[in-house]
TrEMBL record:
It comes from the Eukaryota. It is found in: Golgi apparatus membrane. Signal peptide: none annotated. This is Exostosin GT47 domain-containing protein. It comes from Rubus argutus (Southern blackberry). The lineage of its organism: Eukaryota, Viridiplantae, Streptophyta, Embryophyta, Tracheophyta. It is a single-pass type II membrane protein. Belongs to the glycosyltransferase 47 family.
Length: 499
């Protein structure tokens, strides 16, 4: 009786408390919604979930990630099958899907199995970066600050962090992580090839590469497919270089192609197999509001700030500088990607209509993505470049493509740019405002961000990956073994004709 009395007298209190909690939650919800900067894109809010404000800084995101993974959570480890066993199980899964799913093999979301590699290939390397990036601020490679290079190529971190995040915190619908290999469409190898290249002593790094190679090729799933359904991040052209020819069947995540042999050997990279990912931008995003505010301030016609001397295709830079340096409306400046460089590049790009994007060491360069997110229309002078997500995005709507032979003719480039109508410039700028979200990596990864587009592109590759896997499993000695597509420059007699 007494007990009942107490509960009854408590219940109005409970109701009141609940009401208060609910009200304050609502208040917080509204507050966080309003305190966000105004929705930067006209097509709906950029960040639909106000609880998780996305972090776009590599260092900040990584620090938070390492805190959360201080002692990596125990996970259900997939049983290690023999290759033939795994093959049978995958056959069963795929058969079940074929007869149950009217859209199979067009699969969405992509199911990815993330390997649990020993910490020396993963967490230890991330910790090595975090514990040393402050002291290595003066460390350079080929004239560029090393910690900035790592950041610029940190796609391996952003993709992995999204795959590892608890399902309740993930926003992408294009990919799910599976914990059993027989459920997987693709296998993700989380080896930080770029950090090891830059921060380890040369011989140590080479030996780590060999160890990683052995670990990877020992996997039953690798053995079954020859690596064809395995994803390997190699976003710096020197990453994994000493051994990567031995993993050439895998899907490489690359900054660009250049199969002339300078960086990647012909036969090791091609668009049907691999995937191009954008560099991580080094400037803040100029959103739709910023683009309309900066419209009247873009007084420079053509802007370029970067290294003026580069190797390989980057030799075009010196010629362009010679042609353009004294012209009116043109701003060209030698600069590196360091901290002071960021502000200078950001300001310059926001004050310019066009941003020159010549080939760097690779045909594309990080500057291209800085220009895109700054609302500065890229003028791409790089005959060989390949672009990220081109199965989804149309770069002609946000950039101009100029051949290097045209660009170095006296007066040609400036006449061409001055003849572009203000209406066309405005249209391209509006498209840039829409497109910039496709180039901003963040945690949590955002729908339509680069992490999301990676998986949407992968979905398009899947049928071919299976085709080549099965084909490789049944070929006999006399079969044709080499079946690849390749982009090559046309013979000089036929160049000029677009076939
Ligand atoms: C980096 O170089 C600057 C200028 O030369 C110097 O002042 C600074 O102490 C150096 N930083 C480190 C961590 O060595
Ligand atoms: C798979 O394993 C077998 C037996 O160890 C080996 O002979 C074969 O070369 C391996 N295949 C691949 C693609 O690694
Ligand atoms: C290019 O020209 C050479 C020499 O004329 C010829 O042998 C070769 O087959 C041509 N390649 C293509 C792709 O047309």
């Amino acid at each position: 009786m007494a007990g009942k009395q107490i509960t009854r007298s408590k219940s109005p209190l409970v109701v009141l408390t609940l009401l208060l909690v609910a009200l304050s939650l609502l208040f917080f919800f509204l507050l966080s919604f309003h305190s966000d900067s105004p929705a930067p894109f006209s097509d709906g809010p950029l960040y639909p979930n106000p609880i998780y404000k996305p972090e776009t800084s590599f260092v900040a995101s990584l620090e938070r990630f390492l805190l959360a993974h201080d002692s990596p959570p125990p996970t259900v480890r997939s049983r290690r099958h023999k290759p033939e066993e795994l093959d049978d199980l995958l056959f069963k899964t795929e058969t079940r899907r074929l007869y149950a799913d009217p859209y199979y093999p067009l699969t969405m979301p992509i199911r990815v199995y993330v390997y649990e590699m020993p910490a020396k290939f993963t967490y230890d390397l991330l910790r090595l970066f975090i514990s040393s990036y402050k002291d290595t601020s003066n460390l350079t490679s080929n004239g560029s600050p090393v910690h900035r290079l790592i950041e610029q190529h940190s796609i391996d971190y952003w993709l992995w962090a999204d795959l590892l995040a608890p399902e309740s915190e993930r926003l992408l619908k294009s990919v799910v992580r599976v914990h059993r290999q027989e459920e997987a469409d693709l296998f993700y190898i989380p080896f930080f090839t770029t950090i090891s290249f830059f921060l380890m002593e040369k011989q140590q790094c080479k030996s780590l590469y060999r160890e990683a190679l052995k670990w990877i090729t020992d996997q039953p799933a690798w053995n079954r497919s020859g690596g064809r359904d395995h994803i390997l991040p190699l976003h710096h052209p020197w990453s994994f270089k000493s051994v990567r020819r031995l993993v050439k069947n895998a899907i490489w995540l690359l900054p660009d192609m250049d199969s002339t042999g300078n960086w990647y050997k012909p036969g090791q990279v091609f668009l049907e197999k691999d995937l191009i990912l954008p560099y991580v931008a080094n400037v803040d995003v100029c959103d739709a509001t910023c683009i309309s505010e900066t419209r009247s301030k873009r007084t420079t016609l053509l802007f370029f700030r970067g290294r003026l001397k580069r190797n390989a295709g980057g030799k075009i830079r010196a010629n362009l500088v010679a042609e353009l340096h004294s012209a009116e409306g043109v701003f060209i400046e030698e600069g590196t990607a360091g901290e002071g460089g960021k502000a200078a590049a950001q300001n310059g790009m926001r004050k310019s209509s066009f941003c020159l994007s010549p080939a760097g060491d690779t045909p594309s360069s990080a500057r291209l993505f800085d220009a895109i997110v700054s609302g500065c229309i890229p003028v791409i002078v790089s005959d060989e470049l390949e672009l990220p997500f081109e199965g989804i995005l149309d770069y002609r709507k946000i950039a101009l493509f100029v051949s290097s032979s045209d660009a170095v003719q006296p007066g040609w480039l400036l006449t061409y740019l001055r003849n572009i109508s203000p209406a066309q410039i405005e249209e391209m700028r509006q498209n840039l405002a829409k497109y910039s979200r496709h180039f901003i990596y963040s945690s949590p990864a955002q729908p339509l961000g680069p992490e999301d587009l990676v998986w949407r592109m992968m979905a398009g590759k899947l049928v071919n990956i299976r085709l080549h896997t099965r084909r490789s499993q049944r070929v006999v000695k006399e079969s044709r073994r080499i079946c690849t597509c390749d982009c090559r420059r046309a013979n000089s007699t036929t160049s000029g004709h677009l076939l």
